[in-house]
Write a structure and sequence with these properties.
Blueprint lengths: L3 H6 L31
This protein binds zinc ion.
Pfam family, one: YhfH
Protein name: Protein YhfH
InterPro entries: YhfH-like
């Protein structure tokens, strides 16, 4: 039986919908875009 931590580890990383770059979730307002693509 896997722990809840292992469950979240198996989740795919959040990716930018524009360039596909993995997003480090720092601000919820970034949405589906990385910091570069969310500039404009
Ligand atoms: Zn991007």
């Amino acid at each position: 039986m896997e722990s809840i931590v292992e469950f979240f580890k198996n989740l795919p990383p959040k990716q930018c919908a524009h360039c596909g770059k993995a997003i480090e979730e720092q601000h919820e307002c970034y949405g589906n875009h990385c910091d570069q693509c969310s500039e404009k």
